[in-house]
Structures
1.
Amino acid sequence: MTDLAALVDELDRASSTWLDPRANDSATLRQLLPTAASLWPTAWDRTGPGDEVVLFPLLYTKRPQITTASFHHLIDAACEAERGGGRVLLVSVPTSRHGPDPKAGHTVRRIAQVFAAHGLPVSASGDVSELTGAAHLVARACTMGCTRRAVDVPDLLTAAAADALGATAVVLNHGLVPGRNLHTLPLIAPLSRLHDPGNPFAEPPPEAKKPPAGSDALWSSAFTLALTGAADPSQDRQAYVAALGRRTGPLWHQLRRDQLTGHYAAPAPNEPLRIRADDHPLGNPVNVPLFGAPAISDSTRLLVAAAALAGPVTLVIDDLTPRFSYRTYPAGEARARYQRLAADHGGQARFLTDLPDLHDRIENALGTLTHGALRTAAGPRSSRRRGALTGYDAVHLAVMGVCCTTGTDPGTTVAVKPANLGQLRVFSTLGPPARLLTCTGTGDIATGELHVPAHWITRTPGVHL
């Protein structure tokens, strides 16, 4: 077995475990991993004060419906609330310019009744527009112009509902991205993220990441219902999938019979491209750390194109973690794709598996980054009552820490998506602080908005925007 194969095998074994949520925040990731458990102990389940109100926002464009994603998310929210001695409060939230559906409140009450009839603590408060004093706010929010409509409207209206109803936490249901309003509230992150749009009991596609790196809706709901405790979904899968079908199959069939299921049509993204680089000298090199997925997403291509406007780019590719995150990983084909992407922008690509001291770098990251840093990087998921952080989270953070600090000197610029800024900041213990360049939106690179230092306006020989 080669050194690389041995490292992949070691990290793969460490990934399929649960980290002890009771560990001290000052403990290093290296100290946490030996105490991790392959089965979640019930002693790790956290209880609450008994009066919690967990708000579950059901976003809709035409009328509220239960999608395959919100089906699993609502089951999870009910279980998390029940562990805290509380309940889930279901509220529908309109997101389109058409505003609220007059029958929305009646619909969510029917949905809540079905879940409650199947033993889950769910009740409803109708539509957010029905809350005291909220009708005018909803009408104005739905029709106002937004630069980030898909984020800003749900964020504002969900936060308003949480305040009006005295919610103690808000579930990040499918389609809800926390903006400036929700960031100030306690949030609950569901375990499952990838869902078949037509069948909540479908197996994940073969090209998806393996849990716990990826998302498996069946394992996630079985885990939150305590039908399995395994971090590795392959353990006893046939038994817990069958048990899940018996427990939640009648619930889904009742929702379908009552015509309460459907597909969520998210508002079309209209966010203009925005590039922000507050302290990057125009023309200086830019590093772009990337997870080496087999296929390159449009958002990744946009980030690289934005970084190339600021200076010569170097893509630093984590091609280690994907080797045990996917069922199969065509390493050679993936490498060629990232090399072409770098070449398309006049840059170069560096791969972690080419580093001769990769094992030592990962060990240093595991021995330096702490449980507190991991909780910060993971966000709301780290506060779950059951199923918080996994060994994969620790391994992935350490590997990305190596990725983000490879080839960086004091003052190096690193380009990331804003969603990854929290993770990047925890890497300050691994290397010198970096200048930051971020890219948001889905617009055209040629017509994007630039938020850059004024000296960029001065033409520099050999540099062209």
2.
Amino acid sequence: MPGKDPARSKRLTAELWSPRINGAATARDRVVVLVDAARAHLPADDPMWAPLADQLAKYLRAAGFGS
């Protein structure tokens, strides 16, 4: 039995998410789709999560969230 084809898997993933990302009507909608894609494809311990959380928290604090 042949193994997985990583190139095909990557292409299918792109085909699945691309219409959702490109079809987002607003920047907010696009961010929601991108975060959903990241949650679906990145592990919880991926190093991207910490700086993303820090940056979003910093922005929200500056915008008055939680004050």
3.
Amino acid sequence: MVLIFLFGWRHLPEPYLGWLLLPVWAVAGCLIFASSIEAARLRRGAWLNQYLLAGSVWHARLRGGWLMMSWHLLLSALLALFMLVKLLWLSPWLWLMLLAWMPVMWWLSGQIRRRLDGHVKPTLIKALSRRLLVPLGAALLLIGYLAVSLTLSQPNMQGMSWTGALGLYMQESHSSLPLLAVSERGHQLLELTVQWAMQNTLGDVDSSGILGLLAWCLLLISGSTFIWAWMRLLAGIAAFSGQRGSAADVATPAIQMHGAATQEHK
């Protein structure tokens, strides 16, 4: 459903696409934030109960407050914006790959949950399954993303200078929203730089060196950031789905563990 919505938003004409950017960005950022803060609280709760006594004052202070939430909110906003701009320029083949990935993801989620059943506390099993699904699913999806990306047609920039390639193939943004226009220009700059560097280093052992390494690093970083944001978005939707034991059960895992430890101590 979210894929269909974003696909429809991506094909809206201007100025409607620009007008809807801010609400779409806000919703996507909140969903990514829900997944990110859930995973952070699970990690923090496990760390606290591993090293600190349940009755320690630092157990409560280090549980995570406004500083943790502010950091994850900022990170989620940046990831959401990068993902949305990426979707605006995404190839139809990559859209099909995301569509084909959806049933695979739900199957993988079910497999992880069944593996955890009987080993993890019932109140935390759904949150932990989402915690494991994001990195595992992102790794698998990234392989497919890179495989499809490397087979797509690209503008011929062999033998051209970097500035010449940018001047020839950089497209003007038609958005009336400055934020979207600047973001689109930045995305084009990144994509064209990766394509230019790869085309001018592949097969050239003498001069590839640092430039070739830079091209592959940029490709991996760009693809990994997009895939990570996408998986966080889907995990956030699951956290907001209203299922029993989803967001509410993991919002305070440290408190639950603290209470259990106190009872055992008594």
4.
Amino acid sequence: MKAKDFLKDLLRWDLATGSTYMKSSYELKIISGELKPRSLYYFSFKKSDLMAEPDVTLTLGDGDIQYLWKIDF
């Protein structure tokens, strides 16, 4: 089993590609970082002190901030 497949099974809905956000019908506003369409990201609405700084911080127009960490393979 590849690490990518393992993460997808483990995290279920907490993985998305950058293009998913770019094609969204919501109003995308990038607060910090650069969103790359082909990159795979782990996303969360909570920023943990135990994790590295997020690669991208954004909002989809509803006021909720999402934090994205790029997954390198």
